[in-house]
Amino acid sequence: MANKIVKFILGKIKFLENKLFAKPARRVLNESVSQHSQLVADLIVHPDVQYTKNIDHHRYHSRFDHMLLASKFAYYFALRTGADIRVCVRAAAIHDVWTKGSYCLPAVEFAKKIGEPAAVQQAIATHMVLNNPPRDKNGWVVAFADECAWGVESLEWLRLITRDFLGWLAAVSPLNIK
């Protein structure tokens, strides 16, 4: 009985995840992959960006994975809003390099160090909307892409943590004892 309840609850979470994020995310991830890859190819091999593979971000993901997903969302949204695709994608691809909490100045300094234009630096500086709201379309695209990536990761975290908890609950439930 407990296993049926676990499967039912996980099924509802999976339905919610698919409905809200997974299908749109798959569409984003599969659309125009080669153009996106060309825009970030030099960034993702940079040692500072590679290092982010070792930093946990949003529980079940690395910071590198988060930034790459955000950059793919940024590509998708920039195409549809008329924002500067190159600026949005490159800003999203490095928006969390060396950041600490809600302090994004290290990522802006990193962008400056590697020679990114002022528009990329500005989009990074304003991607945390509550600290410093974006002033242009590029900033809003990067901020929204970051939040969409967070949404996908959060629902995945909810599904995995619920699965782990309900699995434990089913294992210790007296309903499973014969």
Provide structural commentary.
The protein is mainly alpha-helical and 178 residues long. It has a domain at 33-155. It is 71% helix and 2% strand. It has helices at 2-30, 33-44, 47-51, 63-81, 85-93, 105-113, 118-125, 137-172; strands at residues 56-57, 61-62. Strand 1 (56-57) and strand 2 (61-62) form a beta hairpin. Helix 7 (118-125) packs across helix 8 (137-172). The longest helix has 36 residues, at 137-172. It starts with a helix and ends in a 6-residue tail after the last helix. The relative contact order is 0.16. The mean pLDDT is 83.
Order of helices and strands: HHHEEHHHHH
Rounded mean pLDDT score: 83
Overall structural class, as computed from helix and strand content, comes to mainly alpha
Give a quick account of the main beta sheet: strands, pairing sense, barrel closure: 2 strands, antiparallel
From the alpha carbons, calculate the radius of gyration and give it in angstroms.
19 Å
Task: Count all strands and give the number.
Answer: 2
Count of alpha and pi helical runs: 8
Quaternary structure: single chain
Report helical residue fraction.
over 70%
Distance between the termini: 12 Å
Q: Looking across the biggest beta sheet, what order are the strands in?
A: 1-2
Morphology: elongated
Beta strand %: under 5%
Low-confidence stretches: none
